[in-house]
Fold this protein.
Amino acid sequence: MSIEESLPTGCVAPPAPNGNALMAAADDEADEPTLTHVRACPHCAARVAELRALQARLRRCLYRLYCPTSDLLVDYYQGLLDPYQRASLTQHLSLCPHCAAELSLIERAFPFGEALGHIAPSRVIIPLS
């Protein structure tokens, strides 16, 4: 079932934009004719609002879908990643508050850096058994 089939008709200025155009509007990436139509048509504006709400619900449920695993974050903390992986994960951590919070939790749970003195926390190996 497509977006068009699942929603009732009611566009005040047919033809209504197709599902892809409405999704682009929900993503703030639509072309000007679509945006003009959505601003003028309450029905299509409501469809865009529904798509935005659906996207928000999906983001809340799937927010870590493309994030590294917890094991990889532990490896990062331990300094076990190769330079490419470390750089990639460092960039991800700068953009992802969820992973940054998890790394902070790992750092608080395993504060070996202070106990071992000269060994930096990024070089401590935490036994996982």
